[in-house]
């Protein structure tokens, strides 16, 4: 599981900071989360192959989270993309994109699909054989969702020595990996645990931005391996955080602690502060395992 | 008159090149022309005061000419702008911007006005005491206008020695600068040319992008001091230029020559070429006074 931060600063793109966008690579699938202005340039700078992005998740319709989407779609078109593209985001995103494509008379030559979100409950919005994505309803000034990316429980691992010892034929291997016991020709039942090892624990990544401090998300993100939680402000601006429906570093750490996640990644920093290390310092007073997002930074998780 | 190129490359923003946007400063007024994705960052890099921009002219609704507009408007809002902002552009631009502002629930706290264009004839769209702006109907794949920025003819310059010699009172000076003759108390008529010098020749700047080679624009831009004309392609891609309704460097130079402009600025380069100097080389075979636009470059004209 690899997380690449394309942008993690609040409000507006600036000379050296970019608004929110990140890539989570999980089981060889690449998901783009949010798409602030300039995201396509950040993708180029980070040498991401555009054609590998087939699913884009937009948390909410504030500009610093989606103004780069129409440009990215247009560039996909200019690059003669073939793959379908699916956009997941709040109701309204389809109208915004289609209006602009219509007025510029430049309809994409690939399938462009929209999965618009309106629910205030967590729901499964993507699933294939290896990965699931669920929404995390957040509380912000407009309708907002975080996203929980979860690996599915993998197959059990074949104990090669054991299957050889019992002389089990290859055609049964998939059943064994699926957890089945095996009945030998002589009538002996060999339990699955004798033939397999436990699979790797499935990993999960929770993206939560933008949001006010909200304990309602804890049951959804509980035990996630990695939580990205916005921390727009430091404790000195706690009242501003409440007023603008953002979080402080300490609030992000409190959610991480209560949800017993493995690691907390902080981001969505206000540019008013001199150093982002201040966010880590404050968060670590509550939760030990804190990482700082920064534009262009990758985390192998 | 000062021209600042914020971006002058075709199609998509890239790591080191920006889509179209430029500033023309004329008689202390600052006009933004086109606003591709990333324009607000280019404005910051070039240390332009955001509050000085009150009029934005959008040539057409292809993404590389306006996808940065919604982000710039949002940033104006975040910066607590007070001045009114007027957007001039093709019909549809108002719907695009207002839809996004409505869905993000972030209405600007300044006056935001739209002047939508639909005419296929050149028309006066802006005028104050010193400057006029007219449209230049262009031929492209969608409805497109260039813009002609013209200084108004300035007042005549007072000949201080002459007015002193005739002992003319101060209260007549404005009439004299406006070109009036003066009747002295003794009945002598003093012709204006004895009391004034010619004013400076008013300057003009014509922006033409995107467009196929189109001689119909010549009467509108004739004798302009400076013409920016798109040159997306070199002669080797002349047929591609025709097909995509763009121009070559030689076509831009031919328009410059026929319109007898002072200087030609080339831009809107396709990124397929190794060096933009090739555009200048080709254009100079037709027209001598060629300048190359480049991102971040300023011209004192």
From TrEMBL, chains A, B:
It catalyses: Endonucleolytic cleavage of RNA, removing extra 3' nucleotides from tRNA precursor, generating 3' termini of tRNAs. A 3'-hydroxy group is left at the tRNA terminus and a 5'-phosphoryl group is left at the trailer molecule. Zn(2+) 1 binds at residues 60, 62, 140, 210. GO terms for molecular function: 3'-tRNA processing endoribonuclease activity. Gene3D superfamilies: Ribonuclease Z/Hydroxyacylglutathione hydrolase-like. The keyword Repeat does not apply. Keywords: Endonuclease, Hydrolase, Metal-binding, Nuclease, tRNA processing, Zinc. Its cofactor is Zn(2+). Zn(2+) 2 binds at residues 64-65, 210, 268. Its EC number is 3.1.26.11. InterPro entries: RibonucZ/Hydroxyglut_hydro (IPR036866), RNase_Z/BN (IPR013471). Pfam families: Anti-Pycsar_Apyc1 (PF23023). Binds 2 Zn(2+) ions. The active site is at residue 64. It comes from the Bacteria. PANTHER family: ZINC PHOSPHODIESTERASE ELAC PROTEIN 1 (PTHR46018:SF2). Belongs to the RNase Z family. Zinc phosphodiesterase, which displays some tRNA 3'-processing endonuclease activity. Probably involved in tRNA maturation, by removing a 3'-trailer from precursor tRNA. Homodimer. This is Ribonuclease Z. It comes from Flavobacterium magnesitis. The lineage of its organism: Bacteria, Pseudomonadati, Bacteroidota, Flavobacteriia, Flavobacteriales.
